[in-house]
Design a protein that fits this description.
Largest sheet: 8 strands, mixed
Strand content: 5-15%
Shape: globular
Radius of gyration: 28 Å
CATH superfamily of the largest domain: Alkaline Phosphatase, subunit A
Number of helices: 22
Number of strands: 19
CATH architecture of the largest domain: 3-Layer(aba) Sandwich
CATH class of the largest domain: Alpha Beta
Strand order of the largest sheet: 5-4-6-2-7-8-3-9
């Protein structure tokens, strides 16, 4: 017995000797690095197995914005793909350590991670997104038509507007003779609606739809494209920050803004949490929507406090609640803009509610058939209401489905398009041919369907499809357009008007270094800078200072700001005073000189003084009253990265990065 015990002990010590032979810090570092590499590899497996058709733009956008409350099935792939992949890697690592060494295991994990990350980079074309973030294009600037510069005339009699975004709804699911691509047709009733109303096809009996171009291939990107005629672009170098939550181009004039200017009241019913991806900010900033989402119905007690189905509440409740809200809204005197956003057909496999038929062996097909039935029932209900005669209804798919295998039976070159139909518009199209169009074209087209007259028939990057103007897709290839849209656009940066108020502490020994840093930053983000310098720093100026200042747009290096550009740098000398007061003076100068701009934040240099000033400024009521969502950013001028960020939420200071 004693001999056996001794052998067992010796065997265990032998297995542990692989760690004893190394220094403790090396063992710990190797284990940590191996775990990190395994997490990266397992993450790639999760991404590929769950979202094989996602785009780099979508992935970056979702990672850059708040998640809100999401459905459990959205997280299920983590347990289905990530956890098993991680456990397999863990077992492999253990076997390698047992047979070889800890170093060998680390090397193997590194090689696997590099291969996995390389695969993801090329699969999702992150390399293109990264390279395009440096490549610049004036494409959007050259083709964009600003609604502020165009005469838009509202009709005397204003029609109501109901817009239904059907999650992941494509023309692909129609019968093949009607232009669909599936072997078994799924959306029979939607097909009849499209052919019986307007989808901008010809007389061939083939359904037409809209292409989803770059920046419009996920739900929020699609909504933004439909209603502004623009791609939703978040610069790649902002993806590490949390101050992108409200990146919805507040100063861009969108369709709901135009409707609001003409007396419309806007509403949206959505079965999810609109805080997901910051969607609620879009609805607040454009058209001032009344939001009826998951949170709203829980707060008023319509939904039990513990109720959560799919993304919040299922589509049959979306339509039920929409009917109740519409009957109340229709009693008001002003015209309404009413939006529905469905979610049951979200990948993977959709939500099979009790109403759904079982016509197919595939669950997702049954969910789509169910959605087809529900939208048809809703349209028939609308047609029976008194408000219908004065209402235009638009049905659009938000983007092609991202389900990993549902469209495997489509022909390789099948042209997938979003479903589109316009119902009850008193409008005749001038061109009877099959149009090649995108989500961007829906912006002026929907306004035209409501009876608005648009000078030139162009808005955003879109054209009015009822008119004769050619769309971008009718003059260029889809690939050419997507390539240009993916590139960095300084014009889009300016349209976004995400303005950073950069208040710099005067601890730079050489102000020229400061100016060089600012010039670099101005290439990456929209800056309006107030440089707070004490009077004793004037002596550091030289000819290079003046040259650099001119590159920054500084035409005056005195105590008073005399030059005002839409975007530029403003300089002010503040005489000796308390630091806090100096920053307040900077902000006052800025607010006086850049009226009309939305101040996004006060940025402070990343040093001890900047950190201290950050905590001081966030407690000052002046900044909290500037505008909703004001941030205090702690900015590293050397790297251009935000080190810390503070925001104001419900009267409280929240560190958001």
């Amino acid at each position: 017995m004693t001999t056996h015990t001794a052998k067992t002990k010796s065997s265990l010590l032998g297995k542990l000797s692989i760690f004893k032979s190394k220094k403790p810090y090396f063992v710990i570092l190797s284990i940590v690095l191996s775990l990190v590499l395994m997490v990266l590899t397992a993450s790639v497996a999760y991404l590929y197995m769950s979202y094989p058709t996602a785009t780099a733009d979508e992935i970056i956008f979702v990672l850059s914005t708040p998640l809100g409350k999401i459905n459990s099935t959205f997280l299920e792939p983590i347990f289905k793909y990530f956890v098993p992949a991680f456990l397999v890697l863990l077992i492999i690592s253990y076997l390698i350590i047992k047979k070889k060494s800890l170093t060998t295991s680390l090397i193997v994990n590194a090689v696997i991670a590099i291969v996995a990350l390389g695969f993801a980079t090329f699969k999702y074309k992150f390399y293109e997104t990264y390279l395009f973030s440096f490549a610049t294009s004036d494409f959007i600037k050259e083709h964009y038509v600003d609604p502020k510069d165009v005469k838009i005339t509202a009709p005397v009699h204003k029609k109501n507007f109901i817009h239904i975004y059907l999650e992941s709804m494509e023309t692909s699911f129609a019968a093949k003779p009607l232009g669909g691509g599936k072997n078994n047709p799924i959306i029979q009733k939607l097909s009849k609606l499209a052919l019986g109303n307007e989808c901008f096809s010809d007389d061939s009996g083939v359904i037409n739809g809209a292409h989803a171009l770059s920046g419009a291939t996920w739900t929020m990107g699609s909504i933004f494209a439909h209603e502004t005629g623009l791609p939703l672009k978040i610069p790649m170098n902002t993806a590490n920050r949390k101050d992108t939550d409200r990146f919805f181009y507040q100063k861009v004039k969108a369709l709901p803004d135009i409707l609001k200017d003409n007396g419309y009241k806007s509403y949206v019913v959505c079965g999810g949490d609109t805080k997901f991806s910051g969607v609620n900010y879009y609805y607040q900033d454009h058209g001032d929507y009344q939001i009826y989402d998951y949170n709203h119905y829980k707060e008023i007690g319509v939904l039990p406090s513990d109720y959560f189905v799919w993304w919040g509440y299922e589509d049959r409740k979306v339509y039920e609640y929409a009917k109740k809200e519409l009957l109340k809204i229709a009693k008001n005197s002003e015209p309404f803009n009413f939006q529905l956003v469905t979610l049951d057909t979200h990948f993977e496999d959709g939500y099979l509610c009790p109403d759904c038929p079982h016509d197919f062996d595939d669950q997702y097909a049954n969910v789509y058939r169910c959605a087809d039935n529900k939208i048809d029932d809703f349209i028939k209900w609308c047609q029976q209401q008194d408000f219908y005669k004065d209402t235009v209804i638009v049905i659009t798919g938000d983007h092609p489905t991202m389900d990993k295998d549902f469209c495997d039976d489509l022909e390789p070159n099948y042209d997938r398009r979003n479903f589109v139909t316009i119902i009850n518009a008193d409008k005749e199209k001038e061109i009877k041919t099959y149009r090649n169009y995108s989500s961007f074209d829906m912006f002026p087209t929907m306004l035209s369907a409501l009876g608005f007259k648009i000078e030139g028939d162009k808005l955003g990057l879109g054209v009015n499809l009822y008119g004769h103007e050619k769309t971008l897709l009718e003059t260029m290839s889809k690939d050419e357009i997507n390539t240009e849209l993916a590139k960095k656009s300084s014009f889009m940066d300016k349209l976004g008007q995400i303005i950073y108020v950069l208040a710099i502490e005067n601890n730079y020994k050489n102000i020229n270094d400061l100016f060089k840093s600012l010039i670099k930053l101005n290439h990456e983000r929209n800056l309006i800078t107030v440089i707070c310098q004490s009077e004793n720093s004037i002596g550091v100026f030289n000819e290079e200072t003046i040259e650099l200042a001119q590159k920054l747009g500084l035409n005056d290096l005195v105590t008073k700001v005399k030059n005002k550009d839409d975007f530029g740098t403003y300089m002010a000398y503040i005489s000796h005073s308390k630091t806090k007061e100096r920053y307040l003076n900077c902000a006052t100068i800025l607010s006086d000189k850049v009226d009309g701009h939305k101040i996004q934040g006060i940025a402070l240099n990343y040093n001890l003084v900047g950190q201290i000033m950050g905590t001081m400024l966030i407690d000052n009521a002046y900044f909290t009253n500037l505008s909703p969502g004001v941030n205090v950013l702690i900015l590293n001028l050397n790297t251009g990265m935000v080190e810390n960020s503070y925001t104001f939420h419900e009267g409280k200071v929240v560190q958001c990065y």
